[in-house]
Amino acid sequence: MLRKPVSLIEKIAKPKELLRWVKLEGVLSVLKLEGVLSVYRIFRPQPNLIAEMTWDNLIVLDACRFDAFAQVNNIPGKLTKIVSSASCTWNWLLNNFSDHDMKDVVYISANPYGSYYYLHKTLGHIPFHRIVEVWKNSWSEELKTVHPSGVNQATLESLDSHPEKRHSIHYLQPHHPFIGDVKIIDTDAVIAVRGARALKT
């Protein structure tokens, strides 16, 4: 039985209908904060962008916003905004590498999702020549993350041992937990802690 078409106004008024539509259409993202339903349009991702582009070394800055990077970037060349194929690492890996063999690439990862185990489990194959699992040996219990210096060291070693290969270098920064001299307050965590304290009193 066919369902009657629902207008966007009706979708916003009926969150369950909106969520069903979002899953089907894939053109909206829904965020529910403190009982308020916010709807905003997102760009459609560009699948296979990494496989189709020409590059020698790809540097991935996990959870880095383009506008924030543009403010501090001093790397020579043209900075271009593109839409990622996903908003989280495991989907990003799936969307970019599931249909491609990139045996000319060494993947250096501070992110545990970039492991032999996870990639084989998720993709059914290892798309890279080699994976350097930096997170295994460079995880800092104090920082609760991998410091960028561990990725830098692994990258320099791999560039020396595999000069003929391309390199995909995946840093965890600026992803939470934040490190460095300037501390950024995680407002969601602060709100959650304040809310929990208010419930106890």
How would you explain this protein's 3D organization?
The protein is of the alpha/beta class. The protein folds into two domains: 8-41, no CATH class; 49-171, no CATH class. The protein is 39% helix and 20% strand. It has nine helices and eight strands. The strands form three sheets. A four-stranded parallel sheet has the order 3-8-4-5. A two-stranded antiparallel ribbon has the order 1-2. Strands 6-7 form a two-stranded antiparallel ribbon. A hairpin with a 2-residue loop joins strand 1 (28-33) and strand 2. The longest helix is centred in the C-terminal third of the chain and has 14 residues, at 148-161. It starts with 7 loop residues before the first helix and ends with a helix. The model is unreliable at 6-44 and 188-201 (pLDDT under 50).
Give a summary of the structure in a few sentences.
It is built from nine helices and eight strands.
Tag the structure with descriptive keywords.
9 helices, 201 residues, disordered C terminus, 2 domains, 4-stranded parallel sheet, single chain, two-stranded antiparallel sheet, 39% helix, alpha/beta
